[in-house]
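Q: I'm writing a short explainer about Pantothenate kinase for a general audience and would like to include a description of its predicted shape. Could you first generate the structure from this sequence?
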Amino acid sequence: MSEAPRAQPPAAGPPPVTGQDPVTGDGSERLSPYRLFGREAWAQLRADTPLTLTQGDIERLQSLNDPISIEEVVAIYLPLSRLLSLYVAATQGLFKATQRFLLAERETKLPYIIGLAGSVAVGKSTTGRVLAALLARWPNTPRVDLVTTDGFLLPNAELARNGTMERKGFPESYDTAALLQFLHDVKSGRKRVTAPLYSHLVYDRVPGEERVVESPDILIVEGLNVLQPARLPRDGTAVPFVSDFFDFSIYLDGHEDDLHRWYVMRFMRLRQTAFRDPRSYFRKYAEVPEAEALAIADRLWTTINLPNLRENILPTRQRASLILAKGASHRIESVALRRL
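A: Of course. Here's the predicted structure. Afterward I'll give you a sentence or two in plain language.
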């Protein structure tokens, strides 16, 4: 992997640490593993990191109902890109030290893997694509890839047989063994690794189709439950976590009420777009009256997405290396960076 860009630190001292701590719930940093930054304090850490995306690029990268602006990229994602450039360079140095210790100087550099977690409707897809685009435009152009864990959802036919279609997105609906094998193969330096391909249109895996990942320098893995620890087996054997393969992890956070509202808004917009495709799994929702559609969206959030958030996703937040907390307008208002 080409060495990441190195930015000069700002001339002034470190900005004030502000924001709400994800562990203590306040801004005191009492016994907290995180350093807290308000939006403006975090934006100062951009230093001289260049903006390499245009407004047109950002419009192409954003997802439905997830607004993002040039100002958001400058204030939040450029400092994050700078931080990752320093972390990747440091990891490369650590890898070389390990090579020397093992007398394995010819071993291939291993991919730097970034995990991206958060609730349904919080904007993970947009964050993943914007971050991938910025990282891919570092000097010497590293190879950056983005994979979602949707492809590792069990096929609908299997979920139906197990009676778990209504729990799609919960941890038990994933082929965790296949996901762990995929990450192991990537982290072991295999040049060509494949993952199942998922279609949001048909709401299922695409039979016989694969997503190919070839020797990435950086891989972003985006999914609901990527930070969740494995359940301990009864026989005491060790089971790796998905996050064991991550070099860095990001949790995209939002208030429950905002997530609920964003989910319903996205559902209603999809009724006018993708749901109208005759191939869409959700075609039936495009035909119902608006009031009924609103009730359906509310029910889906309340009975499926909200329980999954509370039981499985939100409890993993404090396992992240970095937490980006959104306000009601999708604007990131504070950042929490785990202390090393």
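A: For your explainer, you could say: The CA atoms of residues 215 and 241 lie 22 Å apart.
Q: Perfect, that's easy to follow.
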